[in-house]
Design goal:
The chain has 141 residues and is of the alpha+beta class. 35% of the residues lie in helices and 15% in strands. Strand 3 and strand 4 form a beta hairpin.
């Protein structure tokens, strides 16, 4: 038993753009903000990344909820944060997962988190973790 998904990042999580602004333009705008030294623009980048992390955690928590105790959760093709050079549209860093397990109170074994750098796309990675607990057997001897 396992649960797995791909978490589609939120484009423009702070809703700074009208709905008719093309996706690509939103990403380019965000990447431009990443290069800024302006304090208010850096704050937008920080809040955008926090919203992205909260979104990813929401999906991870749901997968953890539905998987049986002791079983595996897999998140595939995770992108890095939008300000990373190779990012296509934004995601979370590989380092985020260990910290997120504690911050978001995930019901997992923190030592079970494994990052696999080889993924379908060149600049993505996969994550595997195990839910706390053991599976109870219904088989009697």
């Amino acid at each position: 038993d396992l649960a797995f998904t791909y978490v589609d990042p939120i484009v423009d999580p702070l809703r700074r753009h009208e709905d008719n602004v093309p996706y690509h333009d939103r990403v380019v705008d965000m990447k431009d903000l990443c290069e800024s030294t302006d304090k208010s623009k850096k704050d937008i980048v920080r809040r955008d990344q926090t919203a992205q992390e909260d979104w990813h955690s929401t999906w991870v928590k749901e997968l953890i909820r539905i998987v049986k105790p002791g079983k595996v959760v897999i998140i595939e093709d995770v992108d890095s944060p939008v300000c990373d050079g190779d990012s296509d549209w934004g995601g979370v860093s590989q380092e985020w997962w260990d910290e997120a397990a504690a911050r978001y109170n995930w019901d997992i074994d923190p030592d079970s988190v494994v990052i696999f750098e080889q993924a379908w796309y060149r600049n993505r990675y996969n994550v595997v973790m195990r839910k706390n607990g053991t599976v109870q057997s219904n088989i009697s001897s």
